[in-house]
Amino acid sequence: MDKYAVLEALSALSQETRLDVFRLLVRAGPVGLCAGEIAERLGVVQNTMSTNLQVLHRAGLVRSAREGRSIRYFADLDGMGDLLGFLMKDCCGGRPEICQPLLDGLTGRA
User: Fold this and answer.
1) Which residues, in sequence order, are CB contacts of 40 under 8 Å at separation 6+?
2) Confidence at residue 52, expressed as pLDDT on a 0 to 100 scale
């Protein structure tokens, strides 16, 4: 992931509704959610939600699949992994033991 893609992803997540959408989709897991359901759960009008979903999609943080007349959205965990990887690259000056508590927290290890 290059610096400009990282900036786009961070910019996409810096807006409250988009951050809420991404976190909701992460919780939904591989099942994802349809756009209308996302809008309903977050109390956002559908045209505004559509715009926010497109921003997240362009930033590589969500992916979508058409289901008849609906579009189902999913958190793009590969995109988030790329973002985190960029941010963590060269972490701790080559001393991974310093970063290990952070990495364990991200992976849920105790």
Assistant:
1) none
2) 97
CB atoms within 10 A of CB 72: 17
- Residue bearing tokens 């559908």: 46
pLDDT digits (tens, 9 = 90+) for 31-83: 999 999 999 999 999 999 999 999 999 999 999 999 999 999 999 999 998 89
Give the 3-state secondary structure of 24-90: HHHHHHHHCEEHHHHHHHHCCCHHHHHHHHHHHHHCCCEEEEEECCEEEEEECHHHHHHHHHHHHCC
CA distance 84 to 16: 19
- Domain ranges for the chain, please list them: 3-107
Predicted confidence at residue 109, as pLDDT, reads 62
Question: pTM for the complete prediction?
Answer: 0.85
Rounded to an integer, what distance in angstroms lies between the CA atom of residue 48 and that of residue 108? 34
For residues 16-32, one letter each, b for 16 or more C-beta atoms within 10 angstroms of the residue's C-beta and e for the rest, the string is ebbebbbebbeebeeeb
Q: Provide the CATH number for the domain formed by 3-107 in this structure.
A: 1.10.10.10
